[in-house]
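Box 3.1 — From sequence to structure: Histidinol dehydrogenase
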Amino acid sequence: MKVYNYKDLSKSKIEELCSRQIEDDKLVEERVTDIIKTVKNDGDKALLNFAKAFDKVELEKLFLDAEELKSIASTIPADAKKAIETAYHNIKTFHQSQLKTEDKIETMPGVVCWRESRAIQKVGLYIPGGTAVLPSTFLMLATPAIIAGCKDIVVCSPPQSDGKTNCYLAYCAVLLGIEKIYLIGGAQAVAAMAFGTETVPQVYKIFGPGNRYVTTAKTMVQNKVAIDMPAGPSEVLVVADETANPSFVAADLLAQAEHGIDSQAILVSTSIEIIEETLLEIENQLAILPRKEIAAKAIENSYAVLVNDLSVAMEFSNEYAPEHLILATEKFEHLIPLIINAGSIFLGNLTPESAGDYASGTNHTLPTSGFAKAYSGVSIDSFLKKITFQHLSTNGLKNIGPTVEVLAAAEGLDAHKNAVTIRLR
Ligand SMILES: NC(=O)c1ccc[n+]([C@@H]2O[C@H](COP(=O)([O-])OP(=O)(O)OC[C@H]3O[C@@H](n4cnc5c(N)ncnc54)[C@H](O)[C@@H]3O)[C@@H](O)[C@H]2O)c1
Ligand SMILES: N[C@H](CO)Cc1c[nH]c[nH+]1
Ligand SMILES: [Zn+2]
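Predicted structure (token representation):
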């Protein structure tokens, strides 16, 4: 991990450090364009071929039904079952609290406006399963979809080498009442849900994180379906001062680094001692990690920045716009108002990012690659449309009518003006 001193960084170097561009981005785009086209043209046949090519499995069929899921789920160990249920409870509790009814507003006497929410009827959820199968993502996506009231919930996840899925995903399906999992991964899953195939239903909005193939596919199908956000390779930025614990900081950096070689783990600190001790701790902790090759590669592509005070650290963080921001300091309260761009925040030295990944209740599907400047993470709102209503009484029509008539005339739109005039007569 390279160490920079903020005061030596030019504006363009800061931009470069905050960009997540990877050399072969073009190649991934070309490959994904081809995958989408093939799924659009060949439907299920393409999906079976891609499963063979990318997931190394010859599937007999493209989904597991309720009976099969129940049977796989029955093999889950008791402690995992309990942990999934606890996580589900917290995620459900937090997301249920986001359901709000808005007030009706009288903008002028007799003119009443309000908004009501309606669930998106057909949604597609992508559950990653390449380097690691993520049942936690299943909970993070399906729980708010169900609370919001989505009617058709299509779930795709890459198949295992035995053409099935694991007991954790299957147990989530049983717990959530999801009766089918489509065994489709990568860009082809996104294409299948965007365009539909003989077997996979077409949806209106696609949700879920994934690798660069998945994320590129989601951005490419946006003229056909809505998407939650670009939620690509995981990233974390830790702001640490002299009150931070280097072992904890190293553990948090490695937790995101182990997701994939293209993950980013950034440390911004006011203390060179904390940076140096964290780097040593990373080496120690890496040595005993089963996924050490992946994590080491991601750490190699990451960096640390020495700053002279915490406000500069926050400035850098806002420019980077991390998916996860950890404030590893006892003085985190003062920093909260300075946060502008970030997906989810972890406060103080005792709040590991993993808590949010699994079980605190907040959603772990979050914007990456700087998209936290404009997108929020998944929430109940992601599964809802907000529809506006208005009602004019006789008095309301009299009050608002002249304003509409004048503005319509100013735009030269006489039919608009007449729709009011005819009622005022
Ligand atoms: N931002 C978030 O909210 C968030 C949350 C969880 C996970 N993540 C990220 O999700 C990602 C999951 O990635 P993953 O790879 O483990 O699983 P994945 O399910 O996203 O991707 C696996 C699929 O990628 C496709 N694929 C692999 N190599 C390919 C190739 N050469 N050409 C075409 N397609 C190919 C295959 O179809 C395979 O099924 C990680 O980067 C992780 O950091 C992000
Ligand atoms: N850190 C990931 C979001 O970037 C979420 C996750 C799932 N499992 C473990 N972590
Ligand atoms: Zn994680």
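Summary of the box: The radius of gyration is 25 Å.
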